[in-house]
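Lab notebook, bench 4. Still working through the backlog of constructs that have no structural model yet. Next entry is a single chain of 156 residues. Request: give me the structure tokens for it.
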Amino acid sequence: MREINVGIIGTGFIGPAHIEALRRLGNINIAALADIDIDTAKVKAENLNIKKYYGDYKELLKDDSIEVVHICTPNHLHYQMAKDALEADRHVICEKPLAIKIEEALELVELAEKKKKINAVHFNVRYYPLMRQVKMMVQKGDIGRIFSIHGSYLQD
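Model written out:
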């Protein structure tokens, strides 16, 4: 299987979590990362053993070696970053939500189709065994009519 070059935008909690997961796949090269602060980007890149880093995600998008971009930033930044990445002919994996407004999300879906690029939002617990069991219980009516759900989980 060929190696895929990935760029990570955002180096807070979730960016390094994406890097950890991607490295477990085996055929992924984390080619670069970007953060709004160049000094933070440099420190994170050194700590995570990533050769290239940028203080502006638009500079990362100019790197022609990068095929896929993971957007791991605050929610209000997702739409513009995903749009810029798609316009730069990059595949996009975005933290949820894809956009704040439905019109923006639909625009991104249309742009991805036009560009023939993947534009995905991952749902990290959807296929966890516990979630599948809950879904089955709801479908079978085992827990009655649901009015509200509140949940949390610990992540290390």
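Notes after review: The longest helix spans residues 102-115. The mean pLDDT is 95. Flag for follow-up if needed.
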